[in-house]
Amino acid sequence: SSEVTQPVSVSVALGQTASITCGGDTIGTKRVHWYQQRPGQAPVLVIYRDDKRPSGIPERFSGSSSGNTATLTISRAQPGDEADYHCQVWVSTTEVVFGGGTKLTVL
Amino acid sequence: QITLKESGPTQLKPTQTLTLTCTFSGFSLTPGGGGVGWVRQPPEKALEWLGVIYWDEDKRYSPSFRSRLTITKDTSKNQVVLSVTDMDTVDTATYYCVHVDVGTFDSWGQGMLVSVSS
User: Fold this and answer.
1) Distances from the Cα of B13 to the Cαs of B17, B18, B42, B44, in angstroms?
2) B75-89: per-residue pLDDT in tens?
């Protein structure tokens, strides 16, 4: 089956910008969705269809996609942004793939 | 506001069948209501998609689980049921039900940890 890859971990200084990537052969032709999962909690949708933000998600969260890589960008990182971030793609009409997840640490 | 909640057994023995119920509110499995899916997460591991059922009984299953998986719905009760046969220790995971809308999992249940051991 198709795979999407994420870095295992990303660190960012407080108030700076973090970028988390999601790569794979299918990325360029598919819509990518991003989920935030705080410790002990269920995931929450933070970006859908590459760059759309659900209501209630801060403008500090943005998404983009180019070539075979999608990127989640978190501006002005805060301690509350520390979480695991997962990308998700429908690689076909019958198969969903999640990335391995990226642990974001705010220093 | 959409809410979903999983219910069912928290402990199983190998070879048993897991049956989980997702009870939801804030939407209906009727035209335009999207679908209800299942995602699981083994301890300290990545999310894994299991399958989804839509309002019109259309079902999509992960190729990795298709032979063991059944998803059904009871529209009148606002419930969706997941059945997984032949459970093994590697199936120990937190199981989430999710609302599916235009390909996104826009609302998640709180999750239910299911442990499989002899």
Assistant:
1) 9, 10, 17, 21
2) 999 999 999 999 999
